[in-house]
Amino acid sequence: MRAEATGWLIALRDTTGSTWDDACCRADLSPEEERRAERFLRAAAAVTYVRGRSAVRRVLGHVLGEPPSQVRIAAAPHGGPILPDHPDRRVSWSTTAGVLLVAVSRNARIGVDVEVLRPVGSPAEVLGTFYPDVDTLGEFRESETFFSAWTLLEAAVKATGRGLARGARQVRLHRPPDTNRCALAEIRDADEMAWSGRTDRFPVPGSSAEVMTAFVTSGTCVPLWLHTWRMPTVAGSPAGDVAQPGPGVVS
């Protein structure tokens, strides 16, 4: 069966384009997620967590055709999320400063990451902590250079299940000529699979911030639909804007 992936980029604090009903969001959570929400010391952090986990569950419920609260999410041995009742599906998500990126794939391993673009002190040194070939990427004069590399690394090690400390050394990035953004070249020793990666940059609704997103999937030219800034509808096709397609991406 054909491999494919769908992602949603969601602003968890945006009240202009979305109306959040936090009581309904809590009703989507599992008992363990509910207990974790109660352990937050800051109310704002608890709200962000509840909205994020509810959004993940609503995306999964939309894709799988199940009530969000009934979707079973478990932890794999490496710590990443798995869907025990749907072995042909993979899920990955990431949050940063009130922004959630979640993706579900069919017949392909997937990892995602999202980061707010911001100044980073000594970016080459920070990246070099995990990525020994940092010198091959040139100078880090723009935050886009660092965050495209960083999000691809994070997404890649989520997709392989190896973690940053070990998995990042198996990832090879490159920087195309005359560009500020890094790209995925390959993942070495990853079950001899072919891998593809994609990064995008988006302004955050109701904010002056921008985010960098990264998707890494097993296989080449895996179709990816990326829906921005709205939750999926309860039934039918997802609502929201669709990102401009890149190589191997179908919209």
UniProtKB/TrEMBL annotation:
What are this entry's molecular-function GO terms? holo-[acyl-carrier-protein] synthase activity; magnesium ion binding
Q: Cite the InterPro entries for this sequence.
A: 4-PPantetheinyl_Trfase_dom, 4-PPantetheinyl_Trfase_dom_sf, P-Pant_transferase_sf
Q: Which GO terms describe its biological process?
A: lysine biosynthetic process via aminoadipic acid
Q: Pfam families in the record, alphabetically?
A: ACPS (PF01648)
- 4'-phosphopantetheinyl transferase domain boundaries: 109-183
Q: Is Transferase found in the keyword set?
A: yes
Question: Which Gene3D superfamilies would you find in this protein's record?
Answer: 4'-phosphopantetheinyl transferase domain
- What are the record's GO terms for cellular component? cytosol
Keyword annotations from UniProtKB, A to Z = Transferase
Q: Which domain of life is it from?
A: Bacteria
Similarity comment? Belongs to the P-Pant transferase superfamily. Gsp/Sfp/HetI/AcpT family.
UniProt cross-references to PANTHER family, sorted A to Z: L-AMINOADIPATE-SEMIALDEHYDE DEHYDROGENASE-PHOSPHOPANTETHEINYL TRANSFERASE, PHOSPHOPANTETHEINE TRANSFERASE
What is the protein name stated in its UniProt record? 4'-phosphopantetheinyl transferase
